Amino acid sequence: MSRDLSHFIDLESLPLRSPGSDQYQALVAAARQALASDGCYVLPGAIRDEALREMQAEARSIENFAHYTRNKVNVYFSEEDTSLPENHPRRFMMERSNGFVSGDHFPEDSSIRDLYQSDELKAFIADCLGESHIYHYADPIASLTMNVNKPGDRFSWHYDTNEFTVTLLIQDCEQGGIFQYVPNIRNKDDECYEDVQKLLLGDHSRVKEIKLREGDLQIFKGRYALHRATTAEGSTTRNLVVFTYTEKDNVIGASYRSMELYGKTLDVHSNARVRADALED
Ligand SMILES: [Fe+2]
């Protein structure tokens, strides 16, 4: 039996099940405004303490399944193209070290997956995004994942494959792990290489920062915003779960990216797949 939304969220203070209520409409209005202005909305302390403790224990039980990548990558996770000028963003390779637990490692009775699968949560997120429908990501490896940052780990600047991502910070590191992002640094039609180059060369004037707390639910438009988390410090691991939804049905990720992030691919990755757009990944 899967856990009900009320197991995770105090529906008295966050009436996600009552779309007609003033309180719900106010939440959605705030989310839409934040997403329109800078592509990021945080619902602080969304998860009840008891449910959070249960999710923390589950996260700890699977964190060692993380596929670790320690390498140098550009913001597109693509090969370095040496035919381009030296300072071109596609040639700007950065140290990255962090792990991802793929969807297939979550336990059968996963409380984290129960929340991800909640249609009521999905409907609320769609409302925040101003979409009539969103879909659970069809990629079985990448739909529900957990980003694991052990002390010393850092996730370098990157874009997400999907237009938006929902994350839930389950367990924070003692220090560091600060989320930084540059809203709308590229768009559907333009990679805006010059702006990306400025950032990579050290111009942080457009960078915004958020220190998430455990139990914070974040909606983030990561397709067009470069983002990273600063190095995790202290003795605890930062465990952040990522709920991925798509605007089209049956979207599957790129096989090279699945291999890069999760260390594996499935048949579905090599078959003809639905893509959201034609940007570089
Ligand atoms: Fe990301």
Description of the structure:
The protein is an alpha+beta fold. The chain has one domain (5-270): q2cbj1_9rhob like domain (Jelly Rolls, Sandwich). 26% of the residues lie in helices and 23% in strands. It is built from eight helices and 14 strands. The protein has helices spanning 5-8, 22-38, 49-62, 111-117, 119-129, 193-200, 255-262, 267-270; strands at 40-43, 67-73, 94-101, 135-136, 144-149, 155-158, 165-171, 175-176, 179-182, 208-210, 217-220, 226-229, 232-233, 238-246. Strands 1, 2, 3, 4, 5, 7, 11 and 14 form an eight-stranded antiparallel beta sheet that branches. Strands 6-12-9-10 form a four-stranded antiparallel beta sheet, with no helix packed on it. Strands 8-13 form a two-stranded antiparallel sheet. Helix 2 (22-38) crosses helix 5. The protein is globular, with a radius of gyration of 18 Å. 41% of the residues are buried. Fe (ii) ion (FE2) binds next to loops.
Name the helicity range.
25-40%
Known CATH architecture: Sandwich
CATH topology value: Jelly Rolls
The fraction of residues assigned to DSSP E strands is: 15-25%
Quick one: CATH superfamily? q2cbj1_9rhob like domain
Termini separation comes to: 37 Å
